[in-house]
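Consider today's protein:

***
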Amino acid sequence: MLFTDLGLSESILRAINEEGYTSPTPIQEKSIPAVLKGGDLLAAAQTGTGKTAGFTLPILQRLSDSAKPSSGKRQLRVLILTPTRELAAQVQESVVTYGKYTGLKSTVIFGGVGANPQIKAIAAGLDILVATPGRLLDLMSQNCVSLSAIEILVLDEADRMLDMGFLRDIKKILAVLPKQRQNLLFSATFSSEIKALADSLLNSPALIEVARSNSTNEAIAQLIHPVDRTQKHPLLAHLIKSNQWKQVLVFTRTKHGANKLVLQLEKDNITAMAIHGNKSQGARTKALADFKDSKITVLVATDIAARGIDIDQLPHVVNYDLPNVSEDYVHRIGRTGRAGSNGVAVSLVCVDEHEMLRDIEKLIKQKLPQEVIPGFEPDPNAVAQPIQLRSQQHQQNRKPRPSNNGGGSGASKPAAKRSSQPKRSFSR
């Protein structure tokens, strides 16, 4: 199937063609017609499947088909909620890229940066608003944004929004929206919490499930390197140098661990920067931009900070620490092996993490291959030390959150321009 078969306008097809794409991904092939029909949608799609374009393209089409009179100020007609700043910026980039010939106006709002430019953009008149829940509620409380004319609501990565404690904020936003509207809910999982949210929000939704939440991309080569906990950093440096890796996304369990690893890598003359919630907005934006532009070799990230990172043809992902939550393993390694490209996901596993590894293998229903690197053989007599099983972030999310929290962990700079060579599908 081609994009030209999906009922999209010439202006949208022109923008898609300029990005070098001709064929939709499976989630796009199913979701675009469903959204164009105007009904509610519940879709399960992992990161990297192209779900962002799966809703932005038909939304742009629907707004173009029902364009309002040019006289008077534009009314906000579409609200897209995302859990993190990175994802919000990514979604806005998709809206701008594929809507550039439609004449539609959009902006993105999130915390961690000044609100005045965001307020001015809203006041100028918009068709589409991309937002994190906390900043949206903040501006709503200041009467800076009206949701009275919303026709389409999107909850993107709804599972992560619930994980991050945004349910109360979401309910506050839903309470002021028009009752008659189209609702689109995208989630990586169909957990009981997501099903409950869908039951309360959606009206006879179309159901799309592209891949099981516990499946991993066959284009990703997965490998475990057993190692002692004190040898993880030397092993990582060895892998990067001996294999001449040029772009590596590394996951750590904690913010402190991310900062410490960056310092250690820099001593090994390996360029690295960290991205996590304690970094300033400017530092997060610069780190992500430099990594996308290959100015640094390693980007060290925590799980929340990495949500929404979209990097074309990222070759390597390393789990420096295994995640506390098994499902996060799938999200992490899904950063590579996108849009038909191959990727490598390596996990450095010490004795403390053997139980976590078993849980991950049980979830993905496969035994991961293991390779001991010569010179880094783990001590067979090492004794496991306890690991905090619930992250501090998760514990904080169990408490009521202040409504003016911006949500998420840092905005991304628009990705570098893609190659003009034609591609069969795309991953936004």
Notes: The first strand starts at residue 41 and ends at 44. The chain has 16 helices and 13 strands. Confidence is low (pLDDT under 50) at residues 389-428.
